[in-house]
Write a structure and sequence with these properties.
Order of helices and strands: HHEHEHEHHEEEEHEHHEE
Distance between the termini: 50 Å
Oligomer: single chain
Radius of gyration: 18 Å
Helix content: 40-55%
Number of strands: 10
Length: 218
């Protein structure tokens, strides 16, 4: 019911938007993978796949702006959403005018309302490191390096948000998935291996004691 009301409201205003809807997490993920969107409104509590899991999968592929809609108002839940890459939150119950205002504000912040295809970067660069996403290749000082699939996924996740601190728990969920039974040591061991693989750029991965890791350009 909320989905239908939100859709009708956003399409019926003077400044209207084209809206497509999905009723489950898996359906939403499929839609996101097949089409390009300017903005995604994402409920946390979804059948089959949580909004957090869906956002994690989305951020592996695209930087489409996301507003989370949730009844979970605990600070740790909100922080988790931001760590996973959401752009804003709307907590239930909410005013439709509030949601509409947030939609407009987020779209104005994202490069003149360009689509996610416009925002996608086929090449990521940070300091000595360059990643060609289309080819799945990573270069340090212009020389190609070999990475395992998990090392690659871990590096790309860090490169998408340079200077952002990722906790071990968030990295474990982002790279390995919510159902993985590993521990913080899994992340630490892969970071150690990734640093070794990066050679001259190893120091760009910084350990933030008591918090986690981040990638810097220096």
């Amino acid at each position: 019911m909320i989905r239908e009301v939100v859709s009708d409201y956003l399409q019926g205003r003077e400044q209207s938007y084209e809206v497509e809807c999905a009723s489950t997490g898996k359906e939403g993920l499929k839609l996101m993978q097949e089409k390009s969107f300017d903005l995604i409104l994402l409920d946390v509590m979804l059948p089959g796949m949580s909004g957090f899991s869906l956002l994690r999968e989305l951020r592996k592929q695209k930087d489409t702006p996301v507003i989370m809609i949730t009844a979970r108002v605990r600070e740790e839940d909100r922080l988790k959403g931001y760590e996973l890459g959401c752009d804003d939150y709307v907590c239930k119950p909410f005013l439709m005018s509030e949601l509409y205002a947030k939609v407009g504000a987020v779209l104005r912040r994202t490069k003149g309302n360009g689509s996610d295809k416009d925002r996608e970067k086929p090449v990521l660069s940070c300091g000595l490191i360059r990643a060609d996403l289309a080819a799945g290749e990573v270069f340090v000082k212009g020389e190609k390096i070999d990475l395992t699939p998990k090392e690659y996924d871990l590096l790309i996740m860090l490169m998408r948000r340079p200077d952002q601190i990722f906790t071990r728990e968030v990295l474990l969920e982002l790279v390995w998935g919510m159902d993985y039974d590993g521990t913080d040591r899994t992340v630490d061991n892969h970071v150690k291996k990734l640093r070794k693989s990066l050679g001259a750029a190893h120091s760009q991965i910084r350990t933030i004691y008591g918090k986690g890791y981040k990638l810097t350009g220096k």
